[in-house]
Give the backbone structure.
Amino acid sequence: MPALGADMESGTLAEWLVKPGDRVKRGDVVAVVETQKGAIEVEIFEEGVISEFVPVGTEVPVGSVLAYVGGGAGPRAAAAPPIPKPPTIPPPKPSAPPLITAAPPSAAAPSAAVKITPVARRRAAELGIDATALKGTGVDGSVTLADVEAAAPAAPPAPAAPKPRAGFDPAEMRKAIAAAMVRAKREIPHYYLSHTIDLGAALAWLEHFNAAQAVPQRLLPAALLLKASALALREVPQLNGTCTDGVFRQGDGIHAGWAISLRGGGLVAPAIRDADQRPLADLMAAMRDLVQRARSGGLRASELSSPTVTVTSLGERGAESVTAIIYPPQVAIIGFGTILTRPWVVDGAVVARPVVTVSLAADHRVTDGHIGARLLSTIEHLLQEPATL
Amino acid sequence: MTETDSKILIFEILSDLAPEADPATLAGDADLREELDLDSMDFMNFVVALHERTGIDIPEADYGELRTRDGAVAYLARATQSAGERHG
């Protein structure tokens, strides 16, 4: 079970997308796991024949084994590397499957209410079934997707209808955000800087660029802001990486977590890998794809676990500036307010210009304000030459 | 494109973008982004969907006319009429 960020300790196996005995290769999506961030696709990073699956409905702690991959010779390898068990984990319950250790019960778990997994709840709603009336076969008697499907009235199989993976539980999402933000505020000594930038050149370039593009190929200003941030982090790599136990580790690339608000509440910040190396059109396509998948389900585990920095843009209906909280174990978050027309001094004269306020929250254990100011200054310079982005 | 066709099309696209909202209850002159909580990316997807479903090229300078349902209906009617005249 891959790590899905600082705020996630476990998930529930919702669906296997491969069968025991299938040959898998690096990058294949093999399973869907329900998490507090919704349904997440789990990729595999081994090659071989997959077997010994954890049953659907099992709650799987981060680091536990989901399946085994054998290469046909030599010892089998766990599909996900196990992590040492913390000493506080209680012994497995008698009904727990043999491959994993049951996760500690959630402090907020209701005791008397019928437990229904999120994907089961959604499927039951689609089928018009009262999931609370079903007998659950999952961990602790929870009603799983399989229980709901078993109770569904017989119907001919839908031809090519996508499987329902969409959605998320807003209450669980809120818990995940709370856990990460409390940890950030408790552990990370933040410092904050902000800087207002003239966007006149960038928006003029964008207007000219978009005029020559078909509707689907046009760019939003956010693509320029993200690219400028990623390029600036090349110049100031001290702000791109993670800090664990007080030790900074620079990212192996600039993998920008792009903060996406979800309809119904909550947000996720999946990674756009190597954002500094992508052309603007590619970056825009990646942003649109991530937003679509974040809101409909289908984000991948690797996208949630790999950001080396987070960038958030409040968009055209947002506030003037944002003072953000770092997503641990990252060491910085860059925030853009909404673009506003403001009086601005150009060549000694006050003129109306489109401006944006960019802010930085950074980890004072790793850098000081001087480094942070360099980042914001570099972003400003890059946005004055948009054709180079 | 008739007014009814345009309204149905707009309703369908908005229903996809904001599945938890009910675009049928929208006032014709209401700001779609405010009423349906659409962000910049959502609004871009609204314009892209209008383009893909009608074939109309919508210049960025015209986006302001699409901010209400009535505005979008009028825009589509005008754009399809002028496209028809060009082809006729």
About this structure: The radius of gyration of chain B is 12 Å. The CA atoms of residues 24 and 58 of chain B lie 24 Å apart. Helices of chain B lie at 3-17, 32-36, 40-54, 69-87.
